[in-house]
Amino acid sequence: MLGADGIILATPVYYGSATPQIKALIDRSGYSARSKDGRRPFENKVGGPIVVARRAGQNFTYAQLMFFFMITGMIVPGSTYWNVAFGREKDDVTKDEEGVRTIKHFGKKLAWLAKKIAT
């Protein structure tokens, strides 16, 4: 993560929130990103969240991930809507045309912005 120009955190929604694994990553990397010497290694990196839900919990989970990007001083590009897609079974999310289109647009914006910042 320290060497990356861009960071995307993604999670399915489990019981209305992010998975324990992504939450552990956020907690551990976020803690290490707030050093005592004042360095903020994620500051001005580009990043953003992607959330997949069956029916509900996507807004809270999206906010959980967004907090990480905001607290660490990262830059989050916009898209055409929130980076959320819906599905229950394997590959169902590919049928959510709006969700897939939104996330693809987000990925393109993130790559474009990371490239602009790096130059």
Give an overview in words.
This protein is α/β, with parallel strands linked by helices. It has one domain (6-111): 3-Layer(aba) Sandwich (Rossmann fold). Helix content is 41%, strand content 15%. The protein has helices at 20-32, 58-71, 97-118, and strands at 6-12, 46-53, 84-86. The longest helix is centred in the C-terminal third of the chain and has 22 residues, at 97-118.
Overview features:
119 residues, Rossmann fold, 3-stranded parallel beta sheet, alpha/beta
Give a nutshell description of this structure.
This protein has three helices and three strands. It has 119 residues and is an alpha/beta fold. The model has no long low-confidence stretch (mean pLDDT 94).
Largest sheet: 3 strands, parallel
What structural class results from the helix and strand content? alpha/beta
User: What's the structural domain tally?
Assistant: 1
The residue ranges in which pLDDT falls below 50 over 5 or more consecutive positions are: none
Distance linking N and C termini:
19 Å
**Rough shape?**
globular
Instruction: Output the helix-strand order.
Output: EHEHEH
Beta content: 15-25%
Helix amount: 40-55%
Layout of SSEs?
Elements lengths: L5 E7 L7 H13 L13 E8 L4 H14 L12 E3 L10 H22 L1
Parallel strand pairs: 1-2, 2-3
